[in-house]
Amino acid sequence: MPSDAPSGPEIAAAQSPDAAQSPDAAQSPDAPNRPRFSGRDLIGPTMIFAGAFLLSAAIALPALFVGNLTVLPLDTDETIVARSTAPAQVLDQCSLDTRAARVVSVPVTRQQRVVAVRPAGRRVVTLQAGTSLRADDKLDDCSDGTISAIRDRVTLDRETATFRGSGSSEIQYDDKLAPLRVSDRTGLTYAFPFDVAHRDGEFFDPITRTTVPLRFDGDAQVEGEEAIRFVAEIPDTNLYDAHSGADTAGRPTVIVRPASWFGLPGNAPMTLHLHHRSTWEISVDPTTGTILDERITIDERYRPANQPLGEFSLVNLATTLTYTKSTRDAAAARAASLARPITVWGRLVPIAAGVVGVAAIGGGIYWLWRREPSDGEPAAVDDRADERA
């Protein structure tokens, strides 16, 4: 007699809500609950992502990070020593109080210290340069051998190494007088920018407070290091007019003495003004702008006021100075220290990141291609199904 009661299998199905809700579980109760993506499935995309990141870093590092390295350093503190190539001709200032002028022949040393001071920041740095020129031997009991001394303080743009008008620019020629402001200052003096251009520029001379052309003069070598050479010519300048009659760098810009004091006949008073001219030959590291060597030729003479050049003159200082070997070596080491991070982060690291990035992307694409089943390939069959059968 037919019965509406459910049979055994139907009862089991009714009593098992999980089976009713999951037909697949009913068909294969022992099938494992596998994740949608396994670790092996993620290897390829991860390699592609890492490779793309490395390629992006290789492109961005030279453009973004290295730009922060190619600026004037904030920790500048260097001492520069230059000595005369031959004994200099120097007017003995002690002879100003004697019956006749006396010019002596003596080796001289130029010493300069350049230090970074405030204001300084991400865009600007202020350099303070103290420069002295001294005779290696005392000229007389009334003198300690100092021929001249000045202090120059200037705020520079860290990228261009030129004066920032909103900063400081003042030169002090006498410690008893206030510094003179130079608001229209242009040109390079104590530092060059990174990646120095092989072309003419401008040079600022602190002695005459004038800007002159800076002529590119080709390639050079300093202690075996590659350099580029510039030349600046400071024309004959009447320092008496330039400094409004004030003493400059420790020596008078005007001398009034009888003609006999100058070695001329007669005792009529003569007025002579101090004139200055010089030539700067500067060798610069092309990558960092570090000055590796300088050859400075100085010719200072007292000339009668309103007298054409070529007539009578009294030597105040005539010499040619060059960096000492220790100064050149220190400058070369400083240039190498500044260039090293640029080479590492601007060249080596980007190249390595680019090579590894390309390899990672290629490896990821190959991994995905190898893992992907070909068209028409049957799906993998669970071996445990055969065992249960």
From TrEMBL:
UniProt keyword Lipid metabolism, yes or no: no
Top-level taxon in the UniProt lineage: Bacteria
Membrane-spanning segments: 42-66, 348-369
Region annotation Disordered: where it falls in the sequence: 1-39
Pfam families on file: PorA (PF11271)
Keywords, alphabetical: Membrane, Transmembrane, Transmembrane helix
Biased composition (Low complexity): 12-31
Protein name according to UniProt: DUF3068 domain-containing protein
